[in-house]
Design a protein that fits this description.
The longest helix is centred in the middle third of the chain and has 25 residues. It is extended, with a radius of gyration of 19 Å. By secondary structure, it is mostly helical. It starts with 12 loop residues before the first helix and ends in a 10-residue tail after the last helix. α2 runs antiparallel to α4 and α3 packs across α4. The protein contains 6 helices and no strands. The chain has 2 domains: 75 residues, Helix Hairpins (Orthogonal Bundle); 32 residues, no CATH class. The model has no long low-confidence stretch (mean pLDDT 94). It comes from Paraburkholderia sacchari. GO terms for molecular function: dCTP diphosphatase activity. It holds the Pfam family MazG-like.
Length: 127
């Protein structure tokens, strides 16, 4: 018999989303195609589609795209595609994407100290 904790942690919105993503995948028997390699390739492809939404546009045109309901919806869908694939990559590789992102922010805090990096776009090795 498995003991359960008296106050289990409720699932987060991200947990519920991951459950939806996996249920969608499994209902279509797509797990067989979701190798780590294929998921990483697909993430890059979807990121390219996200780039296409702003290709050849200046900042004013991009702002207009975001202000337009159809343009914004398209941008949201492309971002969601990238996000879903990133979730699947992390799930397949067996790591917590939220923890990995938090760890990366902490690393960047050491690489880009505010007193050296504020106001410039140089790489950390050039500070």
């Amino acid at each position: 018999m498995t003991e359960s904790s008296p106050n289990p942690t409720p699932p987060t919105p991200l947990d519920r989303l991951m459950e939806q993503v996996l249920a969608f995948r499994d209902a279509r028997d797509w797990q067989q195609f979701h190798t780590l390699r294929n998921l990483i390739v697909s993430t890059s492809i979807e990121a390219g589609e996200l780039l296409e939404t702003i290709q050849w546009k200046d900042d004013a045109q991009i702002a207009a795209l975001v202000a337009d309901p159809q343009g914004r919806a398209h941008l949201e869908q492309e971002c969601a595609d990238v996000f879903i694939y990133l979730l699947l990559v992390a799930h397949t590789a067996g790591f917590d994407l939220v923890k990995a992102a938090a760890d990366k922010v902490r690393l960047n805090e050491t690489r880009y100290p505010a007193n050296k990096a504020r106001g410039n776009a140089r790489k950390h090795s050039e500070l």
